[in-house]
């Protein structure tokens, strides 16, 4: 029979020991803060758990055996507030709704793409209005709900560097749009496609650069003293968000930072534990976190400070269920919690395709989508938008490793339960080592937050414990499509310069001809940091305006996003370290931080 | 749910702050050395991912390398260079019999960032009354400690020593570390990496 167990008070409780929570727990424990980490999954070991079973395309890439179970909890989705949202209860082919599960969270399976936000992203609103005027912004993004980060790129630079050192980020040191972007590890070797793109794009006057990535391109020991193995380029960890790493080379806090926290003796991990409520007192202060353990017991864990790093909508959902914060009302456009969700990029794009005689673009021994070359000349405000009908831009990437084994998503387009096995694998040979390469360049511009899109509690659907699901109301924006349509001619010129044959430019895409039909791992907003408590939920430290001992960090706290990185781990990682500083300041002197 | 447990503190390969600072300083100072040098001993093992608890830094070099390293490290010398011979605290187990184990080297010591760095030039080992082994020579492996490149005694060489000396507990830890760096999954499933 399940029981209610009152736990002893501690200094700090970290909800979720994923990419952000693992790092924050490490910072706190190294500073002597007694910390309880509540994590809904187990502690996976890359050798004991991943290495013996990772060559299982079906189980890992399709059945998501290392990931969060959608039967426990999920989200419901719709495109606008007039629709009935439906819950996503399983992963279907081509639509992966993957949340992390276990210490390290989604970094177990992520593609490992890295990249900072550029300076413009942090001041998107003020910079755009100052350069082009509010009318331009209103025309490009009707109902825009954009505001600046409460910190600048320069403010975050030391946090970026600290985080990159700990994780061993690899990439370029010559990125012209990101000041002082010397990453600690050299980039992964480029593919033939990447090399050809470098030459062609460079000749077009733009600045191709190696993409930043998460795999350790050389063995290292980080500033916490944690030893990290180098990537062995086995080609089984990348391709979208699929495969785990068997040597710990793909950056994951479980193998980068959390070991240092364990070594301090200050970290108490409560694994396989599902947080469902935050208790508050009459002043709004959070007094305890409630969670179910794997046997169904309810634990009540008091602490001086709490930080939620659980995935985006779940933080919003937990706060709404716990009646913390001011819920967003889309009718009156008031309230802040659940407000301002946005995708990093928005479909539909406009494809430009061509055939190259270089072969092996789908480099079979690649990893983590590394080895790619990208250009940021057409991203952010890195070019003049005068006369354009969009803000931001897109980045073009060529030559990433395919990775992921024969069953990886991008290659195994013919995968289905009916044709797995030797016949299926035989078909993949020509895809893996093609005599020629079909290259598709497709821009997909920014989708900034607008007042129409938000997350709230679903009135119809519950999780396995009976609490309401979070409901996403989100669709694409014309801004992204307008960008893709405008930039396609440049991609065409680059393909021609690469010597491609049969270069074809698709017809301009129509905005909203494709709708959002999933949730992105990298949806931004919903619980944003800012300077205005009526618009934002947290201040720059990630401290809740209404419950001052509650902090949060993740992509949900970012006011806006950018296409300059496909994932959002890297910029959120810098914010996580800022939040860790904020928590320590709060513990030293409780109150609203300046 | 299947999953392994979190590692216990003694299963984690980690350098403490003092040793970390010392290692970085050593890496930066010795980067330009012309003679062979590499960190060995327990600190070297930790930098390879072997969970042991080092209390200092040992540098394996040549006889000339001792002087070159001392010049590069530029600090007050705790022990001036001289040929030293001593018995190690742990004996060797060979063919079922225990033998005392001796080490001889051109030895010097220097404090770096509060940590004693021991330099061993032309280090040799002797088991019991057998002949001295050859001075240690190898091609170092390189790791990066934060920003500093650091040479290490190759892990497979450390493994050979551990096996040869009958230090099975250490040999097992080294074998685990090697397994964690490589394609063990492919091997356990009978898949060839080639």
Strand content of chain A: 15-25%
β-sheet strand percentage of chain B: 25-35%
Write down the CATH class of chain B: Alpha Beta
> How many beta-strand elements of chain A?
24
What is the overall shape of chain B? globular
Major protein interface: A-B, 46 and 42 residues
Ends of chain A: how far apart?
A: 47 Å
The CATH architecture of chain B is 2-Layer Sandwich
Radius of gyration of chain A: 23 Å
Q: Any idea how many domains of chain B?
A: 1
Class computed from helices, strands and strand pairing of chain A? alpha/beta
Kindly list the characteristics that best describe this protein:
heterodimer; A: 594 residues; alpha/beta; eight-stranded mixed beta sheet; four-stranded mixed beta sheet; 14 helices; 24 strands; B: 194 residues; alpha+beta; Beta Polymerase, domain 2; five-stranded mixed beta sheet; two-stranded antiparallel ribbon; 9 strands; 30% strand; disordered C terminus
């Amino acid at each position: 029979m399940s029981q209610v167990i009152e736990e002893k008070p501690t200094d700090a409780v970290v909800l979720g020991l994923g990419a952000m929570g693992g790092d924050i727990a490490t910072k706190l424990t190294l500073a002597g803060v007694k910390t309880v980490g509540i994590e809904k999954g187990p502690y996976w070991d890359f050798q004991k758990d991943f290495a013996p079973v990772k060559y299982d395309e079906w189980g890992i890439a399709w059945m998501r055996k290392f990931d969060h179970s959608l039967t426990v909890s999920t989200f419901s989705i719709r495109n606008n507030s007039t629709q009935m949202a439906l819950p996503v209860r399983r992963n279907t082919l081509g639509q992966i709704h993957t949340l992390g599960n276990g210490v390290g969270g989604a970094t177990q399976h992520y593609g490992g793409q890295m990249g900072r936000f550029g300076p413009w992203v942090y001041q998107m609103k003020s910079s755009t209005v100052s350069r082009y005027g509010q009318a331009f912004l209103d025309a490009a993004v009707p109902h825009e709900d954009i505001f600046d980060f409460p910190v600048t790129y320069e403010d975050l630079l030391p946090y970026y560097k600290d985080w990159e050192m700990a994780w061993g980020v690899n990439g370029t040191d010559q990125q012209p749009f990101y000041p002082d972007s010397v990453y600690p590890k050299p980039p992964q070797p480029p593919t033939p496609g990447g090399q050809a793109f470098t030459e062609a794009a460079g000749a077009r006057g733009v600045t191709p650069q190696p993409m930043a990535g998460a795999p350790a391109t050389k063995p290292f020991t980080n500033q916490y003293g944690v030893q990290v193995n180098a990537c062995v380029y086995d080609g089984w960890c990348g391709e979208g968000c699929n495969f785990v790493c068997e040597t710990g080379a793909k950056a994951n806090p479980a193998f980068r930072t959390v070991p240092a926290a364990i070594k301090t003796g200050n970290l108490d991990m409560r694994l396989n534990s599902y947080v469902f409520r935050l208790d508050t007192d009459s002043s709004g202060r959070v007094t305890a976190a409630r969670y179910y353990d794997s046997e169904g017991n309810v634990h009540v864990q008091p602490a001086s400070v709490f930080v939620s790093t659980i995935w985006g909508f779940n933080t919003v959902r937990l706060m709404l269920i716990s009646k913390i914060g001011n819920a967003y009302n889309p009718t009156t456009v008031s309230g802040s919690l659940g407000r301002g969700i946005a995708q990093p990029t928005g479909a539909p794009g406009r494809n430009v395709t061509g055939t190259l005689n270089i072969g092996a673009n789908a480099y079979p021994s690649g990893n983590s989508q590394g080895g790619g070359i990208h250009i940021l000349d057409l991203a952010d405000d890195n070019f003049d938008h005068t006369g354009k009908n969009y803000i931001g831009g897109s980045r073009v990437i060529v030559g990433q490793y395919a990775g992921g084994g024969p069953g990886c998503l991008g290659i195994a387009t013919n995968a289905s339960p009916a044709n797995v096995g030797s016949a299926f694998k035989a078909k993949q040979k020509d895809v893996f080592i093609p005599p020629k390469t079909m290259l598709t360049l497709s821009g997909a511009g920014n989708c900034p937050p607008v007042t129409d899109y938000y997350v709230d509690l679903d009135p119809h659907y519950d999780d396995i414990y009976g609490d309401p699901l979070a409901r996403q109301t989100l669709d694409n924006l014309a801004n992204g499509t307008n960008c893709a349509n405008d930039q396609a001619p440049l991609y065409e010129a680059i393909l021609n310069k690469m010597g491609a044959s049969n270069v074809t430019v698709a017809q301009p895409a129509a905005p909203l001809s494709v709708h959002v039909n999933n949730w992105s791992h990298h949806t931004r907003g919903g619980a944003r940091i800012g300077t205005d408590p009526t618009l934002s939920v947290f201040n720059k430290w990630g401290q809740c305006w209404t419950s001052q001992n509650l902090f949060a960090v993740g992509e949900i706290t970012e006011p806006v996003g950018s296409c300059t990185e496909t994932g959002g781990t890297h910029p959120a990682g810098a914010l996580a370290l800022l939040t860790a500083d904020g928590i320590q300041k709060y513990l030293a002197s409780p109150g609203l931080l300046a | 749910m299947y999953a392994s447990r979190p590692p216990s503190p003694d299963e984690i390969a980690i350098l403490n702050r003092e040793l970390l600072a010392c290692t970085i300083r050593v890496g930066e100072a010795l980067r330009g050395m012309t003679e062979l040098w590499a960190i060995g001993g327990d600190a070297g093992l930790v930098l390879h991912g072997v969970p042991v608890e080092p209390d200092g830094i040992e540098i394996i070099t040549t006889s000339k390398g001792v002087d070159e390293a001392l010049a590069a490290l530029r600090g007050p010398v705790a022990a001036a260079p001289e040929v030293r011979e001593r018995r190690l605290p742990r004996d060797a187990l060979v063919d079922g019999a225990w033998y005392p184990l001796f080490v001889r080297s051109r030895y010097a010591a220097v404090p770096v960032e509060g940590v004693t760095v021991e330099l061993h030039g032309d280090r040799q080992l002797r088991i019991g009354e057998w002949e001295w082994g050859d001075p240690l020579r190898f091609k170092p492996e390189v790791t990066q400690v934060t920003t500093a490149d650091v040479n290490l005694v190759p892990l497979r060489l450390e493994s050979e020593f551990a096996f040869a000396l009958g230090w099975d507990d250490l040999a097992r830890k080294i074998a685990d570390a090697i397994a964690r760096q490589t394609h063990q999954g492919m091997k356990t499933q009978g898949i060839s990496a080639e």
